[in-house]
Amino acid sequence: MPIAAVHHPGYTIDLPASHPFPMAKFRVLRDQLGTWGDAITWNRPSRATRAQLERVHTPAYLDALIGGHLDRAAQRRSGFPWSQALVERVRLETGGTVLTARLALEQGLALNAAGGTHHAHADSASGYCLLNDLAVTARTLLATGEVRRLLIIDLDVHQGDGTARLLADEPAAMTFSMHVARNFPARKAHSDWDVPLASGLDDTAYLETLADVLPRLIDQCAPDLVIYDAGVDVHQADRLGHCGLSDAGLYERDRRVIEAVRSQGIPLAGVIGGGYDRDLDALCRRHAQLFRAALHLQRRPNDT
Fold first, then answer.
1. Comparing C-alpha atoms, which of 207, 260, 255 is closest to residue 230?
2. Is 80 exceeded by the pLDDT of residue 150?
3. Where is the Histone deacetylase domain (predicted)?
4. Mean confidence (pLDDT) of the chain
5. Which positions ≥6 away from 46 have C-beta within 8 Å?
6. Cα separations (Å) of 198 from 182, 215, 248, 276?
7. Is the pLDDT of residue 9 over 90?
8. 64: in domain
9. Residue 208 within any structural domain of the chain
10. Is residue 257 pLDDT above 90, yes or no?
11. Has residue 303 got a pLDDT over 50?
12. Do the domain assignments include residue 287?
């Protein structure tokens, strides 16, 4: 059975060559995964609606973002110069995560080849995150009754501070963040469950910590859906990570998360999260580990 995946060409926009965000990774990842043939079924999202965005973001912020009225300080916090293409990109990415979650509810497993913008707040952008696709998706599915309870597992190297704050008053959504403590953001939020890590953890230490928490987390939440942020900035070669996972460690992390969730019959929607390396081919091979782990488990005869 092929993996349901979501992508849109609009995930990639033009940025100056000197810009630190590896925007072309979304195109390169899609190209790499395109060589897998019929192992992946591709779905194209629509952009998130204004009504969906207003479930977590303030009307004033959305007016400024969509209308092009963000001041220089706000643009600097976002990490991007404003453009209409940027607005379209982040709305498509957010719509992509909503679609991924709905595909996961239908098919058991689905992956967005973008997403994980967990630093965006109700009234501001932060750290390359302008709209919080995780929180928008959670609020949307809860509001429509498509799920009664959900869990966000965030294994990006940076704490999901925006998501934690946006869902702090939502008892039906549980937020979990396992992140390097001495890293962005300097001012941490309070997730429902935080696991701060020492810098430089290797595969063994990282996976042991995850194995200790993961089963208890799933049992405690008993969700109808898991949204998994599989950021690869925990890799030892990442410019912004300060963590020590290898390629094999990344694969094993993703395999364990998917298996732990799917073995309980719980649908899983995955997003690729952060990853910052100027070697785009290497970076996208790391992001592809999520798809590789999903495909391996999808093909197992005893998979749920």
1. 255
2. yes
3. 24-281
4. 97
5. 92, 95, 99
6. 8, 22, 20, 20
7. yes
8. yes
9. yes
10. yes
11. no
12. yes
Q: Residue 122 phi/psi, 5° resolution?
A: -60, -40
Longest dimension (CA), the chain: 54
Range of the domain at 231: 3-299
Say whether 77 sits in a helix, a strand or coil.
Answer: helix
Cis peptide before 185 (omega within 30 of 0): yes
Burial class (CB in 10 A: 0-12, 13-18, 19+), 79: middle
CATH of the domain at 144: 3.40.800.20
121 is catalytic: no
212 Cβ contact list (under 8 Å, min separation 6):
none
Distance CA 178, CA 121 (A): 19
pLDDT digits (tens, 9 = 90+) for 227-256: 999 999 999 999 999 999 999 999 999 999
pLDDT digit string (tens) for 60-84? 999 999 999 999 999 999 999 999 9
Q: What angle do CA 137, 138, 141 make, to 5 degrees?
A: 80
Q: Helices (H), strands (E): how many in the chain?
A: 10, 8
Q: How many domains does the chain have?
A: 1
- Confirm whether 304 is domain-assigned: no
Residue type, 35: T
- What b/e readout covers 13-48, taking b as 16+ CB neighbours within 10 angstroms? bebeeeeeebbbbbbbbbebbeeeeebbeebebebb
How big is the CA angle at 103 (ends 264 and 33), to the nearest 5 degrees?
100
Residue 134: phi, psi to the nearest 5? -70, -50
110: helix, strand or coil: strand
φ/ψ of 218, rounded to 5, equals -65, -45
Report residue 113's pLDDT band, with 50, 70 and 90 as the boundaries. very high
Catalytic residue among 7, 57, 118, 119: 119
